[in-house]
Amino acid sequence: MKTLNKRRLVIFLNFITLFSVAQSKYTLSGYVKELKSIELLIGVTVYTADNSAGSVSNDFGYYALELPAGEHTIIYNFIGYKTIEKKVTITKDLVLSVELPPAESALTEVVVSASKTQKKESEEVRMSSIEVPIKTIKDIPALFGEKDVLKVLQLMPGVQSGSEGQSGLYVRGGGPDQNLIILDGATVYNAQHLFGFFSLFNGDALRSVELVKGGFPARYGGRLSSVIDMNMKDGSKEKITGELGVGLISSKGLIEGPFAKGKGSFIVSGRRTYLDILAQPIILSANNGKPAGYYFYDLNAKANYEINDKNRFYLSGYFGRDKFYFNHSEDNDYYNSKRRFGWGNATGTARLNHIFNPKLFSNSALIYSFYKLGISEVAEQRDQPTFKLNYGSGVNDYSFKQDFDWYANNNHKVKFGLVVTQHKFTPDALVVKGDFNASVVNRKTEYNSLETGLYIEDEWRISKRLKSLHGIRLSTFTSEGKTYVKPEPRIGLAYALKKDLSLKASYASMNQYIHLLSNSGVGLPTDLWVPATELVKPQSSRQMAFGFAKDFEKQKMSLTIEGYYKDMKNIISYKEGASFLVIEEDIENDEIEVISWEKNITSGNGTSYGAEMLLQKKTRAFKWMVGLYTILDQTKISRAKRWQGVLCSTRQKARYITDISL
User: Fold this and answer.
1) How many other C-beta atoms lie within 10 A of the C-beta of residue 8?
2) Residue 221 carries which DSSP code?
C-alpha cells in the first residue's frame, strides 16, 4: 500500500511539474513605432538573440511571441532603421512597445546588434513577394520629377510595363486587370493619371508598398496575377510639419501632425497639375479664343485615434480626378461644340483595431470604393437642333472586412477572416439627343453583384528546417441570378538546406469574378469593368513556383531565383472591331440600337512560364537591387494580351480571337 501511495505521489508531482512548466510560457506583445513621429511600422522582424522565437509586426505594427519565464534579449530589425536590442525579464504576459530610430539618426543609448542586422530572405517562408521601401521610391528618377510607385514596381523581376512611359503592369504573363491594387484596404480600379504616364499614388503619403506575384496567402483574392498592397502613413504624433514640392507640370503639398493631446494624428496630401493653365494663352490663340486643356488632381487624407491600450480607430480616404475639356467654334459661332472627358476614383476606409488578448488581434473595416468615367459632347449649329451625347461607366463597391491575427504559439501564426463586397457595375449609361434620324437613345445597364471570401491561413514551423504557409479561401460570386462557388487552396514551403540557403515552392489557385474590357494596353479610362454572368464565366488560374533564396551576410546581400508556371482560363477580350461604345442605326425603323458588351466579346485560355532572379544589396538605408527576368508566353491568347502592351502583331491577335467565340 505504501509503495502504491508513493507511486501516486510521484505521478501527481510529475503532473504538477509538467503543468507548471506549461504555465511558465508567457506572451510578449506590443507595437513597433518610428522614433519621434510614432508612426507604426509594418513588417518589423522581432526575435530572440538565440533564435528560439520570432515574429513579424502586422499591418498595424502589432507583434506577439511566446517566451518561457526568465531573461531574454529581444532584437527588433527593420530595413531603413537601426536595429535595437531590449533585455526583458519574463514572469508574466508583458506588453512592450518600442520605437526604432531611422538609420541616419545617431543615438548613443541605442544598442546595435553586431551580426544579424538584416532580414533574411532564406528564413522567410513566403516567396514571389517584394517589399519596396518608400525611400527607394523617392530616390529613383521619374518622368517630369514625379516619383511614381508603379514605375518602381515595373523595375521588379517578373513585371513588365506597356508602352514606353506608361504605368500599366503585366505581371507574370497576366494583363493589367489581373492586378489587385489595394490602398488602406480599399480596391483601386484605375490607378493611372494622364493616360498611364503617372500613377495616382503620392509616395510622400505612403508608409509601405508590397508586391505579391505568386504564392498568394489565403487572405488575398479576386485577381489572378498580383497584389499591390499599399498603406498610407498615419501622420506624425510629434509636431505639425509640412512639405511643398513644385515640379515641371504639377505641385504637391503635405501636412501632418498630432491632435487630441497626442492620442491621435493626421496627414493630408494633395497634388494638381497646371500645364493647362500655363498653356492656356497659346491654346486660346490657336483655338479661336475657346479654352481647352487637361489636368488632374488627387487628395489623400488619413486620421487615427488611440481610444485606449486595446482599441485604435482609423479613417482614411482618397479622391482624384482627370479632366479633359475642349471648346471649339467655326465660322463666327455658326457651329459650336463643347467636349468633356473625365474619370476618377474615390475610396474611404474606416477601421477599428481591437486586442482581445495578447495572442488575438482583430481588425474590422468598412470600405467604400468608387470609379467612374464620363464623356459628353454638346454641338450647336445655327437653325439646327442641338446634338447632345452623355456616356458614363463605373463601379461602386461597399465592403465589410473582418480579419484576425492569432499568435497561437511560436510554431503557429494563424490569420483568418472574411470579406463581403456589394458591387454595382454600370458598363454603360448612354443618352443621345439630336438630329440623329430624329432618334433619342436613353440607355443604362446596371449589374448588382455580391462577392464574398472566407479564408484561413497558418504559418507553421514544422521543424527547425521546414516551414509552411498553407491555407484555403472559399470565394463566392452572385450576379444576375447566377452564383459561383470556388475553393482556392494555397500552400508555400521553405526548407533550409543551410543556415543561409533555403529551397522554396508554392502553389496557389485564384479566381477573378470581374473583367476589364479593353481595346488597347494603354489603360485608357474607356476600358470597362464588367462582372461574371451566366454567359461570361469568371477567370481562373493555377500558379506553381519553385526556387531558392541565398543570403550573403558579410556582403549584406541576398539572391533569389524562381521559376514559375501559370495557366489561365476564361480570359475575355473584344471581338475584332468592337469597342466600348457600339451604336447601330436601323434606317428602316428610324431607331438606334446600342449593342450589349456581352455580344461584343470572345474568350480563351492562356499559359505563361518563366524564370526570375533578384539580387538585393541591403544596407540600413536599402541601397539598391538588381533584377533579371525571362518570361515566355506560350498561348496566343496570352500574346494577344501582350499585344496590348505592343509585344506582338495585330494579325496574330485578330486571327486567334476570330477563331474563338462564346
Assistant:
1) 10
2) -
21 pLDDT tier (thresholds 50, 70, 90): very low
457-476 per-position pLDDT tens digit: 999 999 989 999 999 999 99
Instruction: Read off the pTM.
Output: 0.85
Q: Which of 402, 325, 409 is nearest to 362 (CA)?
A: 402
Contact 218, 490 (CB under 8 A): yes
- Sorted by sequence, the CB contacts under 8 Å of residue 271 that are 6+ apart come out as 202, 250, 251, 252, 253, 297, 298
**Average per-residue pLDDT for the chain:** 81
Query: What is the C-alpha separation between 612 and 635, in angstroms, rounded?
Result: 20
User: Please, are residues 425 and 393 in contact by the beta-carbon 8 Å criterion?
Assistant: no
Please state the length of the chain. 662
**Whether the Cβ atoms of residue 566 and residue 543 lie closer than 8 Å to each other:** yes
Tens digit of pLDDT for each residue in 39-97? 899 889 999 988 888 899 999 999 999 999 999 999 998 877 888 999 999 999 999 99
Could you tell me the three cell numbers for 547?
526556387
Residue with more model confidence, 659 or 572 = 572
C-alpha span between 470 and 326 (Å, rounded): 54
Taking phi over 0 as left and psi of -120 to 50 as alpha, with beta for the rest, 660 belongs to: beta
Q: Which of 359, 455, 463, 389 is nearest to 64 (CA)?
A: 359
Supply the angle between the helices 650-659 and 636-643 in degrees, to the nearest 10.
130
